[in-house]
Write a structure and sequence with these properties.
Low-confidence stretches: 1-9
Shape: globular
Helix content: 55-70%
CATH architecture: Up-down Bundle
Strand order of the largest sheet: 1-2
Mean pLDDT: 90
CATH topology: Four Helix Bundle (Hemerythrin (Met), subunit A)
CATH superfamily: dinb family like domain
Number of helices: 9
Radius of gyration: 17 Å
Structural class: mainly alpha
Strand content: under 5%
Length: about 170
Amino acid sequence: MSDSDLSSSPKSPGSALLRLKTQLDSLDAILAGAGEATLRRRPANGKWSAREHLAHLARYHEVFLERLDRILAEDGPQLGRYRTEDDPGAAPWFSLPTAQVIERMRKLRAQLAERIAKLTPEESRRIGVHPAFGKMPLTLWIDFFLVHEGHHLYTILKLARESLNPE
């Protein structure tokens, strides 16, 4: 991303804030009818269960709040790729019951939305450096967070529905 691309990026989170406030509203529909056993069932390929995806998303809220703090406090911090497998702070999330994971995630989401709603235009333009995507303004980091979350929500939907509607 060139410096001219950075200067033309959004000045405030705008629509991303609305998505941040509402995207998790889809969880009730996504999880409807899926019991704890369904949510804990791992697919045949051995990848994460729906519940593990939820735990990952919840933990990533904490990670993103930390990243937000760094972007606001440091000049162009290098923010490595987040890997749950390398994060000792993730383990407690994976041992919680699903209802607790969701409850805590929603509380973290409210904190995140409140923090982002209070950003000034200058703060929204602050840069964090991603190892694959390079320099990104905070507004793009927020969109990146939401896209990442959307991918996991889709996977959770797929896993929950596959268990309820086997072919």
